[in-house]
Amino acid sequence: MAILSPITPQFLPHGQLLQDTQIEQGHINRTYMTVVREGGETLRYIHQHINTNVFPNAPEMMKNIRKVVDHLAEKRPNFAGNLHLIPSQDGQDYYLDDDGHYWRCYKYVEGSTSFDIVPNPDIAYQAALTFGTFLNDLSDLNPSDFHITIPDFHNTLFRLSQFDQALANPVEGRVELAQEETEFVQSHRELAGKLMAVIQNYPEAIRVTHNDTKVNNVLFCEETLTGLTVIDLDTVMPGTALFDIGDLIRTACNTAAEDERDLTKVVFDQSKFAAIIRGFAETTGKSLHPAEWDAMPYCGAVITLTIGIRFLTDFLNGDTYFRTHRPNQNLDRARTQIHLVKQMLQQIEALKQIVETQRAIHA
Ligand code: ADP
Ligand code: GN1
Ligand code: MG
Predict the structure, then answer these.
(1) I need a labelling partner for 210 at 20 to 30 A (CA). Which of 2, 231, 252, 259 fits?
(2) Is residue 232 in contact with ligand 2, taking CB distance under 6 Å?
(3) To test ligand 2's pocket by mutation, which of 212, 218, 309, 324 has the most ligand atoms within 8 angstroms of CB?
(4) Which residues of 219-237 are buried (b: 16+ CB within 10 A; e: fewer)?
(5) What pLDDT shows up at residue 3?
(6) Is residue 251 located within the same domain as residue 274?
(7) 68 and 143, same structural domain?
(8) Same-domain check for residues 25 and 130
(9) Measured from the CB, is residue 112 less than 6 Å from ligand 1?
(10) pLDDT tens digits, residue range 281-299?
(11) 27 touches ligand 2 (CB under 6 Å)
(12) Which residues surround ligand 3, an ion (CB under 5 A)?
């Protein structure tokens, strides 16, 4: 029996499930692509089992997502790339199964593709335009109307305190494997406050942000390779645009996979950094606070360090947060992140130049 046969009728009562396939991308939720026969047509859907270890209040999170999806549809009524959230039979945007698991359903965005590794600066630019446009489209929503799905998500100081706790009580045998990475984190603690300071000192910069802008959370048009849709809306909540710019830099400027073990392949690509800054500057530049422009050269390094700390913490804790597929994968992920941070800091003067060039045109 197909795994999803008890789930699809809750969202698609007149559909016949033909096929379900698990999608491996994404470290948090369990995602399936389904093929369903419905009213003489064969259609595809995305069904997701929401990870309630990470998102404890799924109903409130789904209210955030409904707000975003409806707002975007209102702005672009006939846009082919719009995300369609399908309500369940009882009218909610989720289905709670008998085992206490929350499920949701989207229409599959047909004709789309995504990238885990970005092949050239143009793809990085397209991703930046797509996330930048998303920020613009949500800029008239009130951040305080959003449920905080994960408190202190990008608060690097808080992430350091979680790291300290893990270090004080690690799973046996793991600290020894993570000596160098631990030392790196300890010697870069001063970077931690840099982005949070912007919103603490200038609360007017706070807006609705995506907060998980890794490059595979953009769907591209398969034919033209232009950016189509922003997905993975679980962490849409108040923040600074720098969180979104930073996480795209972290993922799109890396020439290798996030868990690459051969660090010689993990190269920070400055030409993709320039493409990302240009894409965000062209779309959101006018709306950014001067303090955001000032901190922008560092946002990639700070977010990459933050995620690196989270991977390292999860490794020390025994891999309880991020989905892993092999031993030490979280340590390998932490290593690539640290390797990228080192390169970004070495190149910081050039990154400042790139930002200043765009600031002169678009601020
Ligand atoms: P996670 O929170 O685990 O990262 P995502 O929401 O990002 O989950 O979904 C995982 C993957 O599923 C995405 O990287 C993408 O490949 C695919 N996906 C998700 N939603 C859609 C959609 N509506 N249409 C097409 N593909 C999708
Ligand atoms: C997770 O859900 P996914 O795989 O797009 C994580 C991000 C990390 C990312 C690292 C809710 O993103 O914060 O940056 O892994 N999402 C959550 O690849 O923790
Ligand atoms: Mg994702």
Answers:
(1) 259
(2) yes
(3) 212
(4) bbbeeeeebbbbbbbbbbb
(5) 87
(6) yes
(7) no
(8) no
(9) yes
(10) 999 999 999 999 999 999 9
(11) yes
(12) 26, 217, 232
